[in-house]
Structure formats: structure tokens, C-alpha cells
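Figure-free illustration: sequence to structure, shown twice.
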Amino acid sequence: MDVKLNELGAWLGGRDFTPNGILSAIRRGHDRYYNKYINVKKGGIGGVAMLLVGYVAISYLWEYDHIKHDRWRKYH
């Protein structure tokens, strides 16, 4: 998170892009999200709602082309 724009190439060069590296990065991201929003002492609906909103947004983006074509069809 503290990477400057001119240091981006060196930072990306130090990342592990093997399948195990990518899986461990996804696992670390999941653990950070879970510990920050889900696994809290006084939990609310915020973390689950954020996950649900993200799912709805991604689903809409995946289906946007189909939805766009349905707008112009005539049903009669």
C-alpha cells in the first residue's frame, strides 16, 4: 500500500507470480478481509453486506452485454 509510482516496477519484480504465490496472496487477502470485517467482537452486517454488494456488482458487469441487448428488443 505504500508503493510509490516510480518504485512500482521493482515492487512487482519482487512478487511471486507462481501458482502457489498467487494462491497464497488470495489466501492472505481473504484472511485480512475476514479478520477486519467478519471476525470482530461487535459484529454487524457491514462486512457481509459489502461482500453481497460486490457479488451483485460483479454479476451485473458479467451480464451487462446481455442486459444491454434486451433493452432494445420489442415485445409485442
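We now fold a second protein in the same way, so the two outputs can be compared directly.
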Amino acid sequence: MPYILISTQIRLETGPTMVGDEYSDPSIMNYLGARKSTMLGNNFSEYHVDEPPRLVLDKLEQIGFRVVSMTGVGQTLVWCLYKETSDSL
């Protein structure tokens, strides 16, 4: 999967960071040390890490991902990353 979205709440910019959904590549989620959880009332799962976004971005850069765009949506910061090659972990 060449694209990854990560996000965090502005007031929580030191973590946790949301790093994937239930369809994310398990090997990348394992590399990030992410845990999968489902919030009460949601019918979908998300992967989270305790680290701040900056550390997650550093880790993803080490395996070939690059930031394509970043935006703020309400109180949420969102980064979109892309990996050129189809290499997996």
C-alpha cells in the first residue's frame, strides 16, 4: 500500500498518533509498534501509537515514505505520506 495517513489532535501533539485503519499493512503497523483498537460506538478499527507525529514521520521516512501533504481539519492535524517503490518491510 503506497499511501498512509497519520493524524493527531492539536491538543495531543505529543501523542498518541493515529497511524492506520483496519485495512493498513500489518507489517508497517508492526514496525511502528501500533496497536489496533475499536472505540465504543464505532464500527471500524484504528491503529495508534503513543509517540508524537514527528517520531512516526521519522520512522516512516526510514522505510521510504515521503510526506505528500499536511493539513489541519478542525482540531486534527493530518499528514498524507506516499512510498514510490512497492518494496515491503
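Summary for the second example: Residues 3-82 form a domain with the Gtp Cyclohydrolase I Feedback Regulatory Protein; Chain: K fold (CATH 3.30.1410.10).
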